[in-house]
Amino acid sequence: MVGPAGSGKTTLAQQVMTHHAGTAELLTLDDAHRDPDQLADGLLGVRGRTVPTEDLSTVEQQPPLEPTIDERVASIASELEGRELLVVIDNCEQIADATVALSALGTFVRYLPNDAKVLLLSREDLSGPFSRMLLHGEVGRFSAEDLELDADETDRLLGALGVVAPSPQLVTDVAGWAAAAPFLVDPDGVQGFTACSLAEYLSVEVLGRRSEEERTLLLRTSVVATVTQRAVTALCGPDAVAVFDGFRTHYLPARIGSDSSMIYQPLLRQHLRECLEAERLDEVDALRRRAAELMIDLGRHEVAVDEFLDLGDLERAADAAERAIVELNERAEWVTIQTWLDRIGWDVFSSRPRLLGAYIRSLYGLREFARARALVRRLTLENLMGEIVTVDPGVVPYLGLVYHWRPLDALDLINQHEGDFRADVLRYELEVLSGNTPVTPPTGVDWSDMERIMSFGLLMQGRLDQLLLMLPSDSDWTSPSFYRTPHPLLGLVWCGELERARDLIGRVPDEVRSRSHTDLWHFQEAWLLWAENDLQGMLVAAEAAIEHSRATGFGAESCFQVVRAVALLGLERRQEAERVLEESITRSREAGLTAYVEWAKTFLGLVLLADDRDERAAEVLRDALEGMLASDRRLMLPLTGVYLSEAAWRIGDTAASRDAADVALREAERAGSMFVLCRALRHVPAVLDRQFGDDPASRWREPLRARADEQERSPIVADDRSDSVVFLEIRTFGGDAGILVDGRPVGARRVKVLELATLLALHPNGIERELLQRRLFPDADPRRSGNYFRQVVHKLRKITGISLSRTNDGLVRWPECVHVETTDGRVEELVSRAQASEGPERLSMLVEALDLMTGPFLCESDLEWAEQRRNEIDVFRSEFGREAAELALHCGENDIARNLASAVIAEDPFCEAAYRVLMSAEAHTSQTAALSVFQRLCVALEKIGVEPTQETKELLRHIRN
User: Fold this and answer.
1) How would DSSP label each residue in 342-384?
2) d(CA 668, CA 703)
3) CB–CB of 355/321 below 8 Å?
4) Are 905 and 919 in contact (CB under 8 A)?
5) What is the pLDDT of residues 937-960, one digit of tens each?
6) I want to staple 570 with a disulfide (CB 3.0 to 4.6 A). Which of 12, 324, 435, 535 is the partner?
7) Would strands 85-90 and 117-120 be described as parallel, antiparallel, or unpaired?
8) Is the pLDDT of residue 49 over 70?
9) Which candidate, 92, 96, 93, 102, places its Cα nearest to that of 70?
10) Residue 551 predicted with pLDDT over 60
């Protein structure tokens, strides 16, 4: 057992001896045992007897042959036969370099009988015979690493000393060294107590056993955290490397790395530093300077910065900081950066552009916006910004971020400089917030520290599909950052996935939410509470967001005021809500935050509707809707459209009412969720009644009623006569196949449930139960199929809350209060309406129908009727895809024609008509591309032994001419 002083070797050996079933003997070696005869005498004492006197008389009469030391110890070992003996030999390091004595100890161990065991304790490796025995497996070895305490053992040891809850610093100081704990805890279990005997212990047990050369090396290398050969050379000279290499066998309280580096135990290093300063004070500064220069050579610039700062060398600290700052920027180590620069001082770092750029970043990162704006103004006036941007293009977005609350000023500032992709992201978001025309998001997937900015722009535009792609997967959610989570979680809320949103936000550590952008977390939480109908909680969260934004100067109060007003409105505090919204509109308009003006006007319109101020409501809502449509800010459009539809109808403008409602529905469909639309309809349910009443076959069948309680739904029975109407959507295509009730997915992914729901939808007037069973379970006998059918019906009811009804004729069908729509049925409806239309209107309907067919019909079903329906729809897709492509070409929509024709060819590589459309579309931009399409057609047709038709050849000649 080899380990440093205080590692617990003797204590562990004592425990082994206590639990040993037989006899246990202890021999503690000292300097005298370096003499082999003294060692033999010591081993003889282990047996518990001395040499008999009669043997001495024999010596006087007849001189025997003098036995060798190896023969003597072998004899001692052999005589232990038949005794279940444990021999513990401590302090073996005393003879580690005494060759003869060490060899004799090896012989003793080798000749021990099988029922005797020996435990050797040493602070140094035992070479010689023990190296060979270790190699041959004759002895085992416990190393210093084996003796080091792990976290659980450290807790147990400190608990035994009376420490109930050890502080992190105490655990760090122990660092796995068993002897440290008693020195760090007083007899009453008080932490932080360092016994004065610790210094004495280390002086005697560690330094006292070292040569002067070794002691000098230990003291000098205490100025670095990790001791390596390069560190030894830099601090002690090249001759000291040999001394350092010897430490690998002279165990110290330290960790030795695979590269032979050494990290002293924290208490040992502290003691060494104290001894260095007490005995060699004149060397300390020079050693620390050499250590700092070494850190620079090794690329460890952060350590060098701290060392030079402590030495008062501000210029060298700034030099090292310039090298370290790029990595610190990437890690967002704003506190470290600001601490460094405050210590270095403006007079030194103001002439270094890279450090100035880091200072701007850190001020923003720590939300010291007033200081950041003052610094940006000063650097701009002094014409230093260009030089800063040249060496640090990544600082450009931070110039705009400090003016984020005034987007026009921020855009003006960042547009003066050439930045990296981060500037493009910020420019996109600022234009979304302030512009009056559509903005296209920059392309890419990894937005680094700008993900929060990027995700907010996507949120404002209602690009929920792109937003949700930013959510961390289950595998990497354990370490989320504030850049990745708030706005994508809001995307979940807008999609109605409240349980998932609540689950994911619950996994975000509190330190992440409180570290930075805390107001945005309150903002996100407020909307989630709104969706969960906790309006009082929403109000508290919104007010917390406002307070935090004001305290930091973030400048988003006008946005957060809208959320507060929504909560007030829901709590029937309309006057307060109106006042807050008017204030938000004023603040947002002054700052150029057009998007927040539209948000505030949306809910102000609802307040005005509640007070029957219909003319004013229509005016405010119309202004908000037009701005959202013009700028492509779609997030709130389902709400704004529904409220405007009600306001327009009240003032007698039925056409405007219908148009506004269509906008609301279209944007909900475009976002892929009816959740927010249903929320709006809860406030003005008459909108839904009018739309559905005017055209029962319209798309308004989907959001028929928003429910007050959407979490738990009572089953709907056949004789239900309530006014509530449930809309059931069955998505029948591709990987999106599933069931939605009132716009909310209900998790029906089981194939049989989906098949049952679809079959019932295909027979709206009902279907015989026996026929239904045979269609669902064609291979089962009637008795089993009946059981299977009942199980599937039960599962359908459980997930949807709907009980099937029976007609007087005994047919099974959906209840009358349930309006059912299937995606394939919607496709047929659109195609039918398209055939009665012409031109762009016909094209629009056909494209909408094709977009709905996101994959095969009920792709997981192998039932005969499903396969037949699948084939019918495949014919639909091919036929009407070709027709839509030709129509798009005729209408001058070349890009649409190109995409449609390509999709048809992907499904049917021999559709010559689609190739002609694609050739014509490509010819508008490139003759070469059109000829390439013709070549693809020839290759495809060659496989089936035919040539292109004359019509296609004529088109080719036309394109060539």
Assistant:
1) HHH-HHHHTT-HHHHHHHHHHHHHTT-HHHHHHHHHHHHHTT-
2) 10
3) yes
4) no
5) 888 888 888 888 988 888 888 888
6) 535
7) parallel
8) no
9) 102
10) yes
Q: Are 293 and 231 in contact (CB under 8 A)?
A: no
**Tokens 């909307």 -> residue:** 527
What is the per-residue pLDDT for 439?
A: 93
Residue ranges with strand state E in 186-229: none
pLDDT tens digits, 620-639: 999 999 999 999 999 999 99
Q: How far apart are CA 822 and CA 730, in angstroms?
A: 5
Strand partners, 805: 813
Mean residue pLDDT of the chain comes to 84
What is the residue whose two structure tokens read 């007899």? 187
* Residue 148, phi then psi, degrees to nearest 5: -65, 135
As a whole number of angstroms, the distance between CA 236 and CA 290 comes to 10
What is the per-residue DSSP string for 392-451?
-GGGHHHHHHTTTTSHHHHHHHHTTS---HHHHHHHHHHHHHH-SS--PPPP-S--GGGH
Calpha distance 140→130 (Å, rounded): 10
Convert the pLDDT of each residue in 228-265 to its tens digit.
999 999 999 999 888 888 776 667 888 877 777 888 88
pTM of the predicted protein model? 0.57
Residues contacting 483, CB < 8 A, separation 6+: 447, 449, 450, 451, 452
H or E element, residue 880: helix 864-890
Mean pLDDT comparison of 224-233, 828-837, 922-931, highest-scoring range: 224-233
Per-residue tokens: 35: 């003499």
Classify 589 as helix, strand or coil: helix
**What mean pLDDT do residues 151-166 have?**
81
The residue among 699, 688, 687, 680 whose CA lies nearest residue 638 is 680
Q: How far apart are CA 602 and CA 104, in angstroms?
A: 95
Instruction: Report the range out of 45-49, 295-299, 899-903, 936-940 with the highest average pLDDT.
Output: 295-299
Instruction: Quickly state the pLDDT bin for 459 (edges 50, 70, 90).
Output: very high
The SS3 of residue 811 is: strand
Give the whole-angstrom CA distance, residue 849 versus residue 306.
Answer: 66
β-strands 744-745, 738-741: how paired? antiparallel
**CA-to-CA distance for 431 and 440, rounded, in angstroms?**
10
* Angstrom distances, CA of residue 15 to CA of 28, 47, 156: 16, 21, 16
Contacts of 557 (CB under 8 A, 6+ apart): 546, 549, 550, 587
DSSP annotation string for 121-169: -BSB---THHHHHHHTTSS----HHHHS--HHHHHHHHHHTT-SS--HH
Name the 3-class secondary structure at 783: helix
Q: How far is CA 727 from the centre of its chain?
A: 37
Averaged over 809-829, what is the pLDDT? 85
